[in-house]
Amino acid sequence: MDQVPEEWQSRIDAVWEDDALDDGERIARIDELAAELDAGHPVALFERAGARDSAGEEEAAEPLYRSALDAGLDPVRRTRAIIQLASTIRNLGRVDESLALLADEYERTRGAAMADEAAAFYALALVSSGDATRGASIALTALAPHLSRYTRSVTGYAAELLNPRSV
């Protein structure tokens, strides 16, 4: 049920890329396009949630993200929805709930699509929860494979942040 016509997705992408739109216009355009699909279509719900979230309307975005997830999204969109929902609820002050969602998604995506994105937002939630050291370790571990040099060293230092050597 989460499939959408390529042409529809292209029009959605164009709305997101249009910097001339203000938040209200973007929400209206996304809602118009979402209305072309079934009311409970997971991708339509996800796009509507994202438009509100981007506009700073986190309280309106949250139930739409949850409905999109309940309706069933493909693996990449599912991870995006979890990340965006978790970021939204972190912004609403529910850091523990955000952290739980992101910890699960971080573990689920390891070695898969969106793993680095899940790690980045998990690291942010860890910092928000007061565990900046673990957040730095998660972020450095995700970054290390992308370095042109020092991958092994950075990976080792990231692990050492969590288990410092005794002096």
Automatic annotation (TrEMBL):
Pfam family for this entry, one: TPR_5
Superkingdom to which the source organism belongs: Bacteria
Occurrences of domain Tetratrico peptide repeat group (ranges): 42-161
SUPFAM superfamilies: TPR-like (SSF48452)
Listed name of the protein: Tetratricopeptide repeat protein
UniProt organism field: Microbacterium esteraromaticum
